[in-house]
Amino acid sequence: MKSQRPVNLDLRTIKLPITAYTSILHRISGVILFVGVALMLFALDASLSSPEGFEQVRDVMGNPLVKLITWGLLSALLYHLVAGIRHLIMDSGHGETLEGGKLGSKIVLIVSAVLIVLAGVWVW
C-alpha cells in the first residue's frame, strides 16, 4: 500500500495561502491583546488612583519604548478588529468562496496596514 501522506513536514518550506497568514495573524493578535489588556488595566488603575498616579503614568507613556509597546498593542487591536469584521461578513454568507476569501484577506491586510500607520502617527 502506497501512502499519499507528505514526507516533508518542515513548516518553513511549505507555502501557505494568504488566508492562512491572515488567520494565523488573527490568532496571534488575540493573544497579544489578552496579555496587553492586563498592562493597560494596570496603567488605567494607576492613572485613576490619584493625581500623582496620573502624572506617573503620563511620564512613563513619554518613554519611547512604552510608546512602541502601546503602538504594538494598538496594532494588534486594529488588526484583530478588521479581521473580526471580515469573519462577521463571512458568517453572513459573503466571501465564502476561495476567491472571496483571498480578496477578503488582501482587504484585511491593506486596511489594517493603513490603520496601523495612522495609529503610529497618533501615538508618536
From TrEMBL:
Keywords: Heme, Iron, Membrane, Metal-binding, Transmembrane, Transmembrane helix
Keyword Metal-binding belongs to the record: yes
Transmembrane spans: 21-44, 64-82, 103-123
Pfam families, A to Z: Sdh_cyt
InterPro entries linked: SQR/QFR_C/D (IPR034804), Succ_DH_cyt_bsu_CS (IPR018495), Succ_DH_cytb556 (IPR014314), SuccDH_FuR_B_TM-su (IPR000701)
Cofactor(s) needed for function: heme
SUPFAM superfamilies the record matches: Fumarate reductase respiratory complex transmembrane subunits
Bilayer topology term: Multi-pass membrane protein
UniProt keyword Transmembrane helix, yes or no: yes
Subcellular compartments: Membrane
Subunit structure, as described in the record: Part of an enzyme complex containing four subunits: a flavoprotein, an iron-sulfur protein, plus two membrane-anchoring proteins, SdhC and SdhD. The complex can form homotrimers.
Role according to the record: Membrane-anchoring subunit of succinate dehydrogenase (SDH).
Protein family (similarity comment): Belongs to the cytochrome b560 family.
Protein name, as recorded: Succinate dehydrogenase cytochrome b556 subunit
Organism of derivation: Stutzerimonas tarimensis
